[in-house]
């Protein structure tokens, strides 16, 4: 018998010590499945929320919510059916309870001392909307509130007047030519122009674009819906690779973040010859608050304001217009009230007293109350334990 060479012995030893890649992959998959199974068992039977009613699949995995949100698109109706089956408190995912009890909700969830759910706000981290801790959120908001009060907005009135004039020109031109006009596109262009001017001191001039559908493509409302569908997944890593082409199409902040960086680069330029935007929110944030001396933080915060401000204003204005057109009596009454103004101004929006018209204000307030501006739901976490119907709801 021919003895084996040293090389053959080493090769056999390598094979016995280091398994094949297929074996490693199979073992990894098996370990992942075992981990998922054990975690699901813990969530269903041993979690602090295990005693609360609800479907076991919802208690075991976030995929239950993902399925009804992203695939079936029936999560609200599913919640209603769950409450009919299980009562006023239902466990809707491994870490969340849904409560339909007006008195309880008014007592506990009107408090300003509630934290935001870490899982659901992971795609807005570092911005005001994504701050988990309510104390940190309150501190940051106290810096920002003075920049959005009535006094600041009054100083901006001449610029608002200019943008509304451009809006009026587009409407009048369309009426003169008897051409249909998509009002949601027009309102988006108006609101985006105003918000960009107020925040960044720049002129987007979306109202000057002939084809307003091109401007409407910059909206992020649908993208925010997509993000809400993906909240059940650990997506923090998306922010590290958010400038890749594929990720840019998923995370709506990237394009607006580029615009904000372009407009605020001058704040971080050492050259004194560089012209800097003045009398805008970004300039005030950078000069008055040390937390916004970091370019990435300033860009991210202003990007959030651009998205939330433009989308909320457009959605509310569209809803008000729709309700007025759907209710001719209300529309005629608004017109009658506007006709009672003094007439000292050529254009009605320039009259300061237009903001004091009671019926117009009531129409706007009621329309905002009835609509649902939010693209997503906003779960909250209590930092303290809560008792409900004799059961302890643990903190968080």
UniProtKB/TrEMBL annotation:
Keyword Flavoprotein carried by entry: no
Domain of life: Eukaryota
A Pfam family the protein falls into: p450
InterPro entries: Cyt_P450, Cyt_P450_sf, Cytochrome_P450_monoxygenase
Keyword Ribosomal protein: no
Spans traversing the lipid bilayer: 20-38
GO MF term (any one): iron ion binding
Keywords associated with the record: Membrane, Transmembrane, Transmembrane helix
SUPFAM superfamilies in the record: Cytochrome P450
PANTHER family, per the entry: CYTOCHROME P450 (PTHR24305), P450, PUTATIVE (EUROFUNG)-RELATED (PTHR24305:SF231)
The protein's name in its UniProt record: Cytochrome P450
Upper lineage: Eukaryota, Fungi, Dikarya, Ascomycota, Pezizomycotina
């Amino acid at each position: 018998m021919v003895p084996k060479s040293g090389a053959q012995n080493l090769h056999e030893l390598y094979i016995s010590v280091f398994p094949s890649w297929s074996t490693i992959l199979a073992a990894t998959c098996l370990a992942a499945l075992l981990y998922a199974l054990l975690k699901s068992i813990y969530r269903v039977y041993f979690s602090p929320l295990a005693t609360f009613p609800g479907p076991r699949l919802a208690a075991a995995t976030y995929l239950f919510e993902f399925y009804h949100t992203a695939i079936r698109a029936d999560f609200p109706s599913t919640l209603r059916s769950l409450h009919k089956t299980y009562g006023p408190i239902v466990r809707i995912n491994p870490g969340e309870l849904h409560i339909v009890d007006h008195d309880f909700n008014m007592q506990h969830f009107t408090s300003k001392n509630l934290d935001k759910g870490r899982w659901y706000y992971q795609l807005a981290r570092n911005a005001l909307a994504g701050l988990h801790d309510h104390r940190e959120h309150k501190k940051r908001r106290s810096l920002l509130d003075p920049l959005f009060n009535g006094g600041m907005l009054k100083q901006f009135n001449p610029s608002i007047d200019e943008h509304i004039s451009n809006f009026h020109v587009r409407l009048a031109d369309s009426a003169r030519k008897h051409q249909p006009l998509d009002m949601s596109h027009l309102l988006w262009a108006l609101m985006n122009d105003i918000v960009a001017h107020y925040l960044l001191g720049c002129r987007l001039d979306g109202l000057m674009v002939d084809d307003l559908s091109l401007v409407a493509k910059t909206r992020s409302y649908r993208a925010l819906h997509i993000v809400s569908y993906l909240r059940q997944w650990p997506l923090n890593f998306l922010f590290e690779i958010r400038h890749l082409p594929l990720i840019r199409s998923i995370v709506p902040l990237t394009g607006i973040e580029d615009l904000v960086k372009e407009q605020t680069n001058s704040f971080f330029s050492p050259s004194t010859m560089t012209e800097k935007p003045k009398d805008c929110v970004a300039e005030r944030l950078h000069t008055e608050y040390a937390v916004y001396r970091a370019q990435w933080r300033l860009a991210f915060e202003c990007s959030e304001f651009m998205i939330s401000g433009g989308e909320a204003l457009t959605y509310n204005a569209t809803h008000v217009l729709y309700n007025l057109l759907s209710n001719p009596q209300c529309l005629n009454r608004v017109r009658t009230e506007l006709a009672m103004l003094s007439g000292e101004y050529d254009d009605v929006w320039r009259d300061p007293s237009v903001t004091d018209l009671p019926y117009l204000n009531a129409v706007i307030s009621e329309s905002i109350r009835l609509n649902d501006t939010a693209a997503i739901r906003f779960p909250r976490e209590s930092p303290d334990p809560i008792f409900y119907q004799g059961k302890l709801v643990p903190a968080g």
